[in-house]
Structures are given as structure tokens and as C-alpha cells.
Amino acid sequence: MGNCCSDVGGGMAAVSGATSSAATGNQNDAVDMYLRSHGIHGLFSQIELSFSATSLRDRDVFSKSDPMVVVYIKERDGAINEVFRTEVVLNSSTPTWIAKYTITYHFEVVQNLLFKVFDVDTQYHNVEVKMLKLEEQQSLGEACCTLSELVTKPNRSLTLDLIRREESVSSTHSQHCGKLTVHAEECFSSKSTADIILRCIDLESKDLFSKSDPFLVISKLVESGISIPVCKTEVLKNDHNPTWKPVFLNIQQVGSKDSPLVIECFNFNSNGKHDLIGKVQKSLADLEKLHLGREGENLYLPTLVGHNYENKILNSKLLVDKFSETVQHTFLDYLAGGFELNFMVAIDFTASNGNPRLPDSLHYIDPSGRLNAYQKAIYEVGKVLQFYDADKRYPAWGFGARPIDGPVSHCFNLNGSSNYCEVQGIQGIMMAYTSALFNVSLAGPTLFGHVINRASVVACDSLSTGAKKYFALLIITDGVITDLQETKDALVKASDLPLSILIVGVGGADFKEMEVLTTCTISYPFEG
Questions:
Q1: How far apart are CA 107 and CA 419, in angstroms?
Q2: Which domains does the chain have, with CATH numbers?
Q3: Is 499 buried (19+), middle (13-18) or exposed (0-12) by CB count in 10 A?
Q4: 211-229 burial code (b ≥16 CB/10 A, e <16)
Q5: Which spans are transmembrane here (predicted)?
């Protein structure tokens, strides 16, 4: 068993099945509504992909590789886009990854998938997987298939030979690089999530000079008999009576409340060879009964007796200290309940954008009517959000400029007013933006903290009045911010408000340093 992140510290962290690209079953409600509103009615289903591998190459000198799977989509035009990364598994040539990738399967479309397996170098063991630079990792091989190939298999599993790219080009007899197995499960929508606290008592010791370091792995059993891990708890050091942090399982993750689950208790070893302490097989419904009855379930350990394995019943027990179900409402549920989505925008007016009167400026207003990068971002995001805002009055700000006869302002009303910040509609934002270009002097530096705090005030005021509103702040910028810590503080302060922040980068700057903000925001470059 090697389902841990690559470093000892990371390997002891919990990994949830919710680390998939889409954790719950209703993530495409808004997309589906958009498609249907445009007359597009395809045959599609949500498919969850899970991954395991065997016989991977050992690229490390004194240990096995620390593998990670990266998933790519091959577009019709030949472009290859990365869409997902698993967690890193510790010291394993036969890893089973817990993180899942959810993809929309379209019957009428050939969907080409590319899978690459990397060995993550030791020096990057404390780096989040999404921040890893793949060119700095060693390739363990790659494989490809179509989604149609996968879902048409009787057990919805496909085992692919991993090959090295250079070998596949130079020779038809490529070196064996192991195999990658991809398993597909259809996602069925469920809004219910089980909140569970598990503990064990009287665990047997697996370490010679200390107590065990236990953790749990929860897996679902599918129709073909395959065991698919969906969740792993954190590791608790030297503890024979551990109580783990709460586990959250969406009913969709496990199939149904009555679907069988295998709960395995392992003793953590830094070499990746974790010892099985014991296991039980229970459904969510069974776990709920254990909680209500305040009873424990004895663990068992498959033991070889003669030529057969028998389940040896242990004194160790699994107990359920908490079991509760909550409903996770969807986006459409909130809309049906009367919630509105309110759009706000903040535009970068720093000098690095260039002189607005010159064609090479990111702020250049083309007389022909061609939109610049800022106008395109406003229009593309605004046209989506405007349908969910009843009065279509949008707070709009600028930052990083010097108004006429004034100091540099890091949050000024785009409409030029000193009393109110709202403009009417997307066209109102466009007009206020154009007007501001002729009434301010571009300056700097690039600071986000002020506009985030201003948006937070708007959201907080709305919350205090009981209004059913959720706010989305669009920040458009051409460069890396210089108040990173202040921005982090502002995001943390706003984290319990009905507010999301979308950062759009324009121009040719390197925005990778800002990816650290993506734990609190949505961030992507916008090509103008």
C-alpha cells in the first residue's frame, strides 16, 4: 500500500476522494443550463477516472520512484492541454492513486486522453502538485486512449502500456516502462454528504521499538470486484487508540449508502511499504448503525492457513464517534431560492500597461472598434454573469493610477464619482473604463489588497442586511502584484463572506508567482 504523498510529512496527510477535478455530482449545472439555452442537447454523462499502475521503473537511487499521473486532453486542432494531476505516491512501483478526475463523456465526440506518469524529485517533495514544474521531473512513461475505448470495456477498466516518447519515435520495440490502469465509473448525482469521525482501539503494534503509526484507507467495491480507494485519513504517530479527523464522503463517491466499503487500517512506513493492521467491510448505512448503537466492529486480518487465506478476527475495534448527513445545495438550488450573483470589476491602471494613446499599449482604444485585452475580459466574463444579476448595476473600480490633481489611488471609482461606484450594465463598465483612461495618469505599483477589501465591505454590508446575494469580483491585471502578503491577508479576511475573486492576467507577463493565490481565488491568463 503506497497511497501517500512523496515526502514523509506529505505522506502523513489525509487525501480525500474530493480531490478530484469535480468533487460533487452537480458541478456542471451552470454549463448544462448554458448549453441547453443555446439549443445544444448532447448525450453525455459524468465519468470519474481512477488510476493505478504496476511495474513502474525505479528512477531513484536508493528507493523506488515517487510517481504522479498527469492527464491531458488532445483537442481537435492537435493542441494538448493539461487538465488534472493526482497526488504523489511515496516510494512505490505499484501505486494506486486516490485523487480522481471527473470528465464529461460525450457520446458523439471522440475524446482523446493522454496520461503521463512522472517521478517527482526529492527536492520538490514539499511543493504542492499543482505548482510542480513538470520539466524538472523525470518521465516514467506515457500512454493514450479515447474515452470511448474506456467506457465500452465490460468492467470499464483499461490497462495501457507505458512507453517513453523518445523510444516510441525511434523504435517499435520500446523499453518496458510498466502499465497504467484507468478505471471509469459513472457519476450519479447526490447532494448528501456523510460527515464521519472514526477511531480504533487496541491496535496491534507493527513497529519493533514503538507503537504503530496508523492511518485508514477507505475504498469502494465496484461491480467487477475492483477496490477503488476514495479517501485516506492522516497518519497519527505512536497511537494504538487513534481518533482521526472527520472524513467527508459524498454519497456519489461511494455509489450509494448501501454500497460496500472496505476500511483498511495501515501502519505507516516511510519506505512506502505500509503494514496492514486490520480491515472491515461496511457500508455507510452500517457505519451509521455502529454510531447509533455505540458499538465497535472487530477488525480482521487475512491470514494464510495452509494453502488458503482465512480472516483472523482481532481484538482491535473500529468505532464511529460521529455520523451525520448534510445536503450540499447546487448552484441551481440557490438560484431557485432567490439568490442573485452580483458582478464587480477592478481594472489595473499601472504604467506597465503602456501609454494608452499608443497602439502597443494594453489600454489602447482602437478607433476601428476592436476590443483591447481589458475590454475582452470585461465582456467575456460579464456576458456570463449578467444573467444572474437582477438590476445589472455593477461596482467598478480602478487601481494603480493618479487621478487629476491627486495622489496615486489603489482603489478609485471607475465612473469618476466620489460618492458611488456602480455603473449600469456591461456597456456602462466599458464607457466608464474608456472615460477613466483620459482622466487619470497611469502609475503604480500593482496592489490588490485595497480593491479586495473594498469588495469585502460591499459583501459584508449585503450580508448584514440579510440579502440573498453572492458577489464575484473580477480583477484584470497586466503584472505580478507587489503586496502579496497584504493580498493574502485580505483574502483570508474575506474567506467567510459571500465573495469569490476571479483574477485575469493580460499581456505577456509571467503570472506563475500569483498561483499561490489560487487556493482562495480562480486565476488564469487571458489572451487578448
A1: 54
A2: 46-186 (2.60.40.150), 192-326 (2.60.40.150), 339-517 (3.40.50.410)
A3: buried
A4: bbbbbbbbbbbbeeebbbb
A5: none
Residue at 351: amino acid letter: A
The angle formed by the CA atoms of residues 395, 396 and 402, to the nearest 5 degrees, is 140
CA gap 142, 119 in Å, rounded: 12
* Nearest one of 86, 252, 281 to 185, comparing CA atoms: 252
pLDDT digits (tens, 9 = 90+) for 32-91: 544 444 444 445 678 999 999 999 988 766 778 999 999 999 988 889 999 999 999 989
Could you give the C-alpha distances from 14 to 121, 245, 246, 269, 318, in angstroms and in order? Answer: 21, 9, 10, 15, 18
The answer to whether 338 and 347 have CB atoms below 8 angstroms apart is: no
Q: How many helices and strands (H and E) does the chain possess? A: 11, 26
Provide the pairing of β-strand 179-186 with 412-413. unpaired
Cell numbers linked to 471: 458577489
149, 162, 378, 515 from 183: Cα distances, Å: 11, 16, 40, 31
Rounded Cα gap, residues 181 and 54, in angstroms: 8
For residue 503 the three cell numbers come to 483574477
Whole-model pTM: value is 0.62
Per residue in 447-468, pLDDT (tens digit) is: 999 999 999 999 999 999 999 8
One-letter amino acid of 45: S
**CB hemisphere CA count around 87 (13 angstroms):** 32
Question: In the numeric block, which cell numbers belong to residue 3?
Answer: 497511497
Full 3-state SS string of 10-62:
HHCCCEEHHHCCCCCCCCCHHHHHHHHHCCCCCCEEEEEEEEEEECCCCCCCC
| Cα–Cα separations (whole angstroms), residue 23 to 18, 107, 328 | 4, 22, 11
Those residues with Cβ within 8 angstroms of residue 208's Cβ, 6 or more apart along the chain or in another chain: none
* Pairing verdict, β 157-161 and 179-186: antiparallel
Beta bridge partners of 403: 440
In a 10 Å sphere around its CB, with 0-12 CB exposed, 13-18 middle and 19+ buried, how is residue 31 labelled?
exposed
